Amino acid sequence: MFCHLLSCFFLQVKPTDEKLRELKGAKLVIDVIRYEPPHIKKALQYACGNALVCDNVEDARRIAFGGHQRHKTVALDGTLFQKSGVISGGASDLKAKARRWDEKAVDKLKEKKERLTEELKEQMKAKRKEAELRQVQSQAHGLQMRLKYSQSDLEQTKTRHLALNLQVGTGLSPVFFFFF
């Protein structure tokens, strides 16, 4: 940052264009600045020139570029209109910056949403696998129980078969073989 010291003795200030004081919706910047001590007026006139301050952006744009002569204007929201056509600052700049921030935040939130959606899909897939596993385990348990009952039934059938074979061969009652 540079600091320039201006000597009021050597400043050549252009005279103020008095017609600019009559413009509707605008005032000379030098007229709206309060300053003390009075001898700095020349430095302020040098710095401000014929720049105008306007109530709103529309007036500032109209006065800056709308007539046959261009003027340097600034709106109360901070929008600066240079004679060269450059427009800077103001609420539109803030809105653009906010929009850029919002876009970044939205992008981050979209990425987070995608990541969380993928995590949710993985968790749902795991839950389905767990449910399938529980179902298979239940079926396996049921089959084990059927096998146990079938084996018990087979043993009883073998015993009855043996008893019947003995009865047929010996002529004794099957009850006799159970107690013997």
Automatic annotation (TrEMBL):
A cellular component annotation (GO) from this entry: nuclear lumen
GO terms, biological process: sister chromatid cohesion
Instruction: Identify the InterPro entries for this entry.
Output: SMC_hinge (IPR010935), SMC_hinge_sf (IPR036277)
Highest taxon listed in the record's lineage = Eukaryota
Q: Which UniProt keywords apply?
A: Chromosome, Coiled coil
Record's subcellular location: Chromosome
Keyword Transmembrane attributed: no
MF terms (GO), sorted A to Z: ATP binding; DNA binding
- Whether Coiled coil counts among this entry's keywords is yes
Taxonomic classification, please? Eukaryota, Metazoa, Chordata, Craniata, Vertebrata
Protein name in UniProt = Structural maintenance of chromosomes 1A
